[in-house]
Amino acid sequence: MNPEMIMEMMDSEMAKEMAPKIMPKMMPLALEKFLDKIPENERKEFIAKIVDIIVSKNEKKEIFAEFCDMFETLLDIKGLSIHSRGGKGSTKEKISPMDLFLAGLCGCICIAVGNTLKENNIETKIKVDGAVEKSFEEGRIKKVILNIYLKIDNIENLNLNKEDLKKLVLNGSKKCLISNTLNCEIEKNIIFE
User: Fold this and answer.
1) Averaged pLDDT for residues 153-163
2) What Gene3D superfamilies does this protein's entry cite (predicted)?
């Protein structure tokens, strides 16, 4: 089957009638079987498109969690349902509440730094990753470690040295509402690639 024929079939009345019946079974099977066959750079965009479609079709735009059992919850983020395991029951195969917290924090820092650099006419690729040091005994996060990666082409052409650029990035990161709300230690590392 060629792609044009498949696209044509998708617009048919038969597909519109059958899709609601077969998609709930077929889509997970297809993803399980073929997702790792998609080149990594295309896979990220593919997954982002799926998530965007799911969120855009949800009318309520709510964010909530339902308790399932022990350390497991069902999280709903604007229509995107996620089985989550947290606390001492968390596993790498499931998204945990801590993963979502870190993703939100990294996203917020990325936006704050990106806009600061853009305002200063500095074009760069920015990536932020994070980790936490937890204390189950104290029942809290003791420390958040954020790594802010910058890839700047022609860095030598900037009117700033690396130390001044680091200061600019750290000042920009202070615009993140999430990190400003935290009362634990936050370590921010600036890494030039």
Assistant:
1) 81
2) 3.30.300.20
